[in-house]
Specification:
Largest sheet: 6 strands, mixed
Strand content: 25-35%
Shape: globular
Helix content: 25-40%
Order of helices and strands: EEHEEHEHE
Structural class: alpha/beta
Length: 101
């Protein structure tokens, strides 16, 4: 997992690239901690450059959703492509999360 972050006012943006898999769990938890520390009200995870996600990665997105609800920020998934978009649709994440094309 490679991550680039940016904060604009109350919006935290993270572009996640490469892959999101079980081995990225600790780094993803650190990202969630960073979101909380900024006091953001909205978090946008840009997945446009994410080439691969596994079931653990899908679970991490659900953890992010739950953390946001618990800590007062909303989660938006932006621009998933290819394999990643297909898995999000297959898992019906669009029924739970806000996903922007």
């Amino acid at each position: 997992m490679k991550v680039e972050t940016q904060v604009n006012g109350t919006v935290f943006q993270a572009r996640i690239s490469d892959r999101l898999a079980f081995s990225d769990h600790a780094a993803f938890r650190s990202l969630l901690k960073e979101i909380d520390q900024t006091g953001a009200k909205d978090c946008v995870l840009d997945l446009s450059q994410l080439a691969m996600i596994d079931s653990s990665g899908l679970g991490m997105l659900m953890i992010a959703f739950q953390e946001g609800k618990k800590n007062g920020w909303s989660l938006t998934i932006r621009s998933p492509q290819g394999h990643v978009e297909s898995l999000l649709k297959l898992a019906k994440f669009d029924k739970i999360l806000t996903i922007q094309s």
